[in-house]
Specification:
heterodimer, A: 249 residues, alpha/beta, Ribonucleotide Reductase Protein R1, domain 1, 4-stranded antiparallel beta sheet, 9 helices, 10 strands, globular, B: 348 residues, mainly alpha, 2 domains, 4-stranded mixed beta sheet, 15 helices, 4 strands
């Protein structure tokens, strides 16, 4: 009997921009309560992959299913939280107004939205600044608000594109505590990163390079593949090995 | 309804931004006032020098010309060169400065008056009186408008349409562009919001301010500048809202083809300026056929036409229905195109 219903199943994703193939047959599966790390250098196709999973980009091949439903599906969009690399906030609204707006788009009533917004803002220590306009927020405050905007509406699937870029170690710690909490609640989380110590905290990692997955496994499995036993070494080793294979062809 | 969520957010953003409010509500009044003083007080009197020491200007002459007597032709030429006169009369020579057609026309009118008066003076008195009777202007009946209409009365209708079109194009275009640039468009499309509801929300949100704007302009024209705006206030408002709708559909669509605000401004010479020229500020009656055809592809041509007919000629809803429908057609076209273009951001 199948114990785990996969939350996200992506099979053979192909995406081209013009004649350039950015993703060539990528498979991704995420279970409830699992954090999947997507690791890779910039330009590897990480953002394109998450946008394909979200259904905001049209696939040139392959399929994506979320909770057993074929994507893209308008209703399921409300069950997904998305945090992009950009902060993607309205500068001329307050933090609270931003959250309530995004929550209402997910179908929440204004009252429920405000209630949940308050508790999320407290979680990221923005509750005292919730009535300030975002234009007056610092970079770190915007990052925190951006994260809560992805979490509002209690999504089952949370897609975070480089969530910790440009934030200080204390805030990064806060973010990861939050990710772990969501994991315990059974949410499925996809995090893209190119920071190795963050990758350690994921349940499973895929290494993306030039649009293909070059490794897939737990952090420990990947470490075991190298003598040095660090994730960074594993990353560099597999990247090199692939490079040599490519050279032979 | 998510349309209202989008509209509500836009209203909150605009209402909280003083600069945008000033541009939408105060700037039109400023432009209208300037035009009122510039066009309403146009030049109507020519400055004519006459080389003579005993000429006495008649009342009819003083109505159309500001006459100065000079003693030599050289003095008249010098004054012409210095811009102190528009033309001069030296014996049987009538000389006009000639660079500004409107001043030339006024000068010619004065020359004509001078020549006629001179002829009458040389006639026997009974012939002169008879001739003067024959030259009387017949009584003119004003079918539309009135004798005290000046250029601004005629142009105010077109200008109102243009100002609304231009401001809504810019403000809505930039608001939609920011949505793309800042990434909020990506974020709001990760929800069950339909693409068509997003654009419709923009219509509703900006529609509220466009309605406010048209009320402010109409009140200002009617009560402050006291120009003729017709009696059908709701119909004028309906036309203005239709213009605003077309402009919003165009602005949000064109924002898709701009990467930043500057690139959106680059559309102004192509999209906005021709509409200004075709909206009735300049008569197209004697232009080549192709220019008239060209004017038909710009929505404001129809909007300004409807405004002029209602405000100046007392037209009713039925008379401007075809103009309204054509603009509605443009709006639906741009709206549909925009929704297709948005597929780039979410395939569904």
């Amino acid at each position: 009997m199948e114990q785990f219903v996969q939350t996200i199943t992506a099979k053979g994703i192909v995406k081209r921009f013009g004649s350039e193939e950015v993703l060539s047959g990528v498979n991704v599966a995420v279970q409830p309560g699992e954090i999947l790390g997507v690791l890779g250098p910039s330009g590897a196709g990480k953002t394109t992959l998450v946008k394909c999973i979200l259904g905001t980009l049209k696939l040139d091949g392959g399929t994506v299913e979320i909770q057993g439903t074929h994507m893209p599906n308008l209703r399921l969009m409300d069950r997904i939280g998305y945090m992009a690399q950009q902060d993607a906030l309205y500068d001329d609204l307050t933090g609270l107004q931003n959250l309530v707006f995004f929550a209402q788009l997910k179908g929440m009533s204004k009252r429920a939205a405000a209630e949940q917004a308050h508790s999320l803002l407290k979680l990221v220590e923005l509750d005292r600044d919730e009535n300030k306009k975002v234009v007056n927020y610092s970079g770190g405050m915007k990052r925190r608000l951006s994260l809560t905007a992805a979490l509002i509406g209690d999504p089952d699937v949370i897609v975070l594109d480089e969530p910790t870029v440009g934030i200080d170690p204390v805030l990064r710690e806060l973010f990861w505590d939050e990710f772990k909490r969501l994991q315990r609640l059974g949410r499925s989380i996809i995090v893209t990163t190119h920071v190795m110590d963050e990758a350690e905290k994921c349940d499973r990692l895929i290494l993306l390079r030039s649009g293909s997955i070059i490794e897939d496994g737990t952090p420990n499995e990947l470490k075991a593949k190298t003598e040095i036993g660090t994730l960074e070494a594993a990353y560099i080793t597999s990247a090199k090995r692939r490079g040599e294979e490519g050279g032979k062809q | 309804m998510k349309i209202f969520v989008i509209a509500g957010r836009l209203i909150r953003q605009i209402a909280g931004d003083k600069r945008t409010l000033v541009v939408m509500l105060i700037a039109p009044m400023l432009i209208m006032s300037l035009l009122y003083f510039l066009l309403g007080n146009g030049v109507s009197i020519a400055k004519i020098d006459i080389v003579s020491d005993d000429y006495v200007a008649s009342d009819a002459m003083l109505d159309i010309a500001d006459v100065t007597l000079v003693s030599t032709e050289q003095e008249a030429i010098d004054r012409l060169n210095d811009g102190m006169s528009d033309g001069y009369i030296f014996d049987d020579q009538f000389v006009v400065e000639g660079s500004d057609p409107s001043l030339t026309a006024l000068s010619k009118r004065a020359f004509m008056q001078y020549a006629q008066e001179k002829n009458f003076a040389n006639m026997p008195p009974q012939f002169a009186a008879q001739s003067k009777d024959m030259m009387q202007m017949p009584d003119v009946v004003y079918y539309h408008g009135s004798a005290d209409f000046d250029q601004f009365d005629f142009l105010a209708a077109s200008m109102m349409g243009f100002i609304i079109f231009f401001l809504v194009f810019l403000l809505a275009g930039i608001a939609f562009l920011r949505e793309r640039i800042s990434g909020t468009l990506d974020r709001i499309l990760v929800s069950s919001l339909r693409r068509s509801h997003l654009v419709a929300g923009y219509f509703l949100g900006f529609g509220v301010f466009a309605a406010l704007q048209t009320v402010v302009i109409q009140m200002f024209l009617t009560y402050v500048l006291k120009i003729h705006t017709g009696t059908n206030v709701p119909l004028v408002m309906l036309i203005n809202l239709t213009i605003a709708g077309t402009s919003l559909a165009m602005g949000t669509l064109f924002s898709a083809f701009a990467r930043n605000e500057f690139q959106l401004f680059q559309f102004i010479p192509i999209v906005i300026i021709p509409q200004m020229m075709f909206c009735g500020l300049i008569s197209l009656r004697e232009t080549p056929q192709w220019v008239q055809y060209l004017s038909k592809i710009f929505p404001l041509t129809y909007g300004a036409d409807a405004l002029r007919n209602v405000m100046l000629r007392g037209a009713g809803f039925g008379d401007v229905l075809s103009d309204l429908l054509i603009m509605l057609g443009f709006t639906v076209l741009f709206f549909t195109l925009n929704i297709q273009v948005l597929k780039k951001y979410r395939s569904l």
